[in-house]
Amino acid sequence: MKRLKRQFSETLEAGTDEAGRGCLAGPVTAAAVILPESFDLPFLNDSKKLNDHQRYELRPMIENQALAYAVAHVYQDEIDAINILNASIKAMHLALAKLSLKPKFISVDGNKFKPFRKIPHECIVKGDGKFLNIAAASVLAKTYRDDFMKTLDLEFPVYQWKNNKGYPTQIHREAIRNHGVTAHHRTSFQLLPKQLKLDF
User: Helices 52-65 and 132-155 sit at what angle, rounded to 10 degrees?
Assistant: First the structure.
């Protein structure tokens, strides 16, 4: 996997990515990471291509080697208010704003972004499988969001968020049908198939 090169070779280039965009419950979580030129983790990849053990093994390695990193959540109420795309971009902006170093360039996973503090950026489709800084951000975003959903599961075990992390699995949707929704569900999303009525 290559690191995206720019004219800022010394380089304060942040990679950013989000997790949880397709979930029915919980926040969308983004991370931003600035890596040193010497960074090397051979099995770092898009977090979706790693198993749970690999992601959690990588997280402290990324954090120990990164020049700077940050994670931010945007919660379900705001997702419902501004839509998931805007919430995802806001989460990335919040993570970038929390970095202890100001990046000179931003590499963004995906094809949609809004300018952040006049810093040049580039959107890269499937960038988490191409560039180390985005891959690192994907691992942090995924693991920190998973941790958040595991904590929520202690209060709402019927939805099995410790296993499905809020994604629309059959078990999750059956629990919504049988037990209704919580304050953590995204009510702007289609929580059940159209043929099943849900009373809020």
Answer: 120
